[in-house]
Structure formats: C-alpha cells, structure tokens
Amino acid sequence: MPIIYYDGTCVYCYNYAIWLIQNGLSKRYEFAQLQGETAQHLFENYPEADVKNSVILQNGDQFEFKSDAIATLITSLTGYKWLGILLRLTPKFLREFGYNTFANNRNRMWKTHWHKPNKYEQSFFID
After folding, report:
1. Cβ neighbours of residue 7 closer than 8 Å, sequence gap 6 or more
2. Sheet order of strands, 30-33 included
3. DSSP class of residue 106?
C-alpha cells in the first residue's frame, strides 16, 4: 500500500490529507505522521527519505517528495485530475518554489482549525 507521510504538527498538512480523503482518495493509500513510528522505520531503512518540510509519497521502494507527491495525489482524484495534470505541466522549479515558500511560511499564515475526522477518514491513518 502506498503511504503518504505528512507533518503531523501542521494543521494545513493534516487538513490536506482530509481533503484528499473527502475528494475520493483511493482506500489503498494510508497516512503516517513524519513524527510517528512508521516514519522512523522508513528513515532507518531509507535515510535519503529523511527530508524535512516535505510530504513524502512512498510506493514500495519508490519515493516522491514535495510538489511531485502533491501532483501525483491530486491526479489520483477523479474530480481534480485536471489540476494534477496542470501541476505536472508546471516547470518543477516553479512548483518547488511554491511548495517551499508555503512550507517555510505556513506558521505565519492565516489561522485554521484541525478537522475532526469521522470513522471513515480515521481509517486512512496508521499513526
């Protein structure tokens, strides 16, 4: 099963995970916090995956980071496939600039709340 690692201390990252689920993310995906036990096992086995400020999409021995992971996940949603394709067509240096700008400034942005997950949404999270 593909695992999506996200910053469990980031309200935007968590709410993005919930948004993916609410918009049709396949049940074959699972979410794990970068601060959790599953991620620690990942980093022990794949030290190159220990990238700070990054969402990580792991599918077996293959990894996607940052904007590549975001584009792949959005492309997997039936209703937003067009947006994922548009992201993929955007030059990577621009996508990465946008991703890094957001990641480095997310604590200074507008305030939002932590979504309270229902049972279905909770079923995607492994830690």
Report:
1. 13, 33, 34, 35, 53, 55
2. 30-33, 3-6, 56-59, 62-65
3. G
